[in-house]
């Protein structure tokens, strides 16, 4: 059975102009840290309550095309007894699933990582498809350290190949792969260094995707923005510089057949992630960018919402209002002008 047409249709739907993806795929440990920040216990009932708060927000489907879920969340139900996957589908929002198993250190380069989860991946994808998921996500993590020559050729090759194997396995089971090569913001490097590394990484990734026969119009790219290191000195005009540098790097490396580039927020504040996306869609080079430039944010959509909620049922409406405000702002930022 060929999924080519379905993959293409799903990728286009996820890349619809004015919409983006909510990354609600935090692992149990990661969401525990988010809950701890508002004084809430990391119990399954609290994890489910937070996800239901997000997925039931009135009108969020106007701004969100898909939601990435964690395994536990895909298997969970809301208060009505309806699965979260069905709840999303009933609102015209496509459910997705995180399929990687986290990172571990490379033996030959212990300051770098590779992503686990390829064993049994095709079978898991088949199960997730049967449960209603129609796309998947796999995150690779790369680090810039000029003094140590990072990212190394080994880390680039290992992570690009794993992303390609993941993407091929997903497509063979009907899931659109979100390909996420994240270059961390850690460090004091300048924006030019990040731009050069981003080009190297994306060149390696797309070479591997082609080698593994991945259908490029049936995938989504989720890259980092081209930013200076978190501890670098920046100019007052850094948001515009990030927008220009990011679009330039993408125009140099990403094939036009890819329907959507949906950015990760990667340590940026809510306001930075939104403003930089808005500027990308207003740069001169954006006129020749053939793909949708939009968002696939986690913290940059949820931070204000979490604070407003505080784990209290009486705050759900206020928390949903904060979430919708972030969704709307990023929707507007993703529209090409």
UniProtKB/TrEMBL annotation:
<protein>
    <recommendedName>
        <fullName>fructose-bisphosphate aldolase</fullName>
        <ecNumber>4.1.2.13</ecNumber>
    </recommendedName>
</protein>
<dbReference type="GO" id="GO:0006096">
    <property type="term" value="P:glycolytic process"/>
</dbReference>
<dbReference type="GO" id="GO:0004332">
    <property type="term" value="F:fructose-bisphosphate aldolase activity"/>
</dbReference>
<dbReference type="Pfam" id="PF00274">
    <property type="entry name" value="Glycolytic"/>
</dbReference>
<keyword id="KW-0456">Lyase</keyword>
<comment type="pathway">
    <text>Carbohydrate degradation; glycolysis; D-glyceraldehyde 3-phosphate and glycerone phosphate from D-glucose: step 4/4.</text>
</comment>
<comment type="similarity">
    <text>Belongs to the class I fructose-bisphosphate aldolase family.</text>
</comment>
<dbReference type="InterPro" id="IPR000741">
    <property type="entry name" value="FBA_I"/>
</dbReference>
<dbReference type="InterPro" id="IPR013785">
    <property type="entry name" value="Aldolase_TIM"/>
</dbReference>
<keyword id="KW-0324">Glycolysis</keyword>
């Amino acid at each position: 059975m060929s999924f080519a047409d379905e993959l293409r249709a799903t990728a286009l739907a996820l890349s619809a102009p004015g919409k983006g993806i909510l990354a609600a795929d935090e692992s149990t440990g990661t969401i525990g840290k988010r809950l701890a920040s508002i004084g809430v216990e990391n119990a399954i009932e609290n994890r489910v309550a937070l996800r239901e708060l997000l997925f039931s927000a009135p009108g969020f489907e106007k701004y969100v095309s898909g939601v990435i879920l964690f395994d536990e969340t895909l298997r969970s139900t809301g208060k009505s007894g309806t699965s979260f996957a069905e709840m999303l589908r009933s609102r015209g929002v496509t459910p997705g699933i995180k399929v990687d198993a986290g990172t571990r250190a490379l033996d030959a380069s212990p300051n770098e990582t590779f992503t686990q989860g390829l064993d049994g991946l095709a079978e898991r994808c088949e199960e997730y498809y049967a449960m209603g998921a129609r796309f998947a996500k796999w995150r690779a993590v790369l680090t810039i350290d000029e003094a140590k020559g990072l990212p190394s050729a080994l880390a680039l090759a290992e992570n690009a190949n794993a992303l390609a194997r993941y993407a091929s396995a997903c497509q063979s089971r009907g899931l659109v792969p979100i390909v996420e090569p994240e270059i961390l913001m850690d460090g004091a490097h300048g924006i030019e260094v990040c731009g050069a590394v981003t080009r190297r990484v994306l060149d390696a990734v797309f070479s591997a995707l082609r080698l593994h026969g991945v259908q490029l119009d049936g995938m989504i790219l989720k890259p980092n923005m081209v930013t200076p290191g978190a501890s670098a000195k920046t100019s007052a005009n850094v948001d515009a510089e990030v927008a220009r540098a990011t679009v330039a790097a993408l125009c140099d490396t990403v094939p036009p057949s890819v329907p959507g580039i949906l950015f990760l927020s990667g340590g940026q504040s809510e306001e930075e992630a939104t403003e930089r996306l808005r500027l990308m869609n207003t740069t001169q080079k954006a006129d020749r960018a053939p793909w949708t430039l939009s968002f696939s944010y986690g913290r940059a959509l949820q931070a204000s919402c979490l604070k407003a909620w505080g784990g209290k049922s009486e705050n759900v409406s206020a928390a949903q209002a904060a979430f919708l405000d972030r969704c709307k702002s990023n929707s507007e930022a993703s529209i090409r002008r």
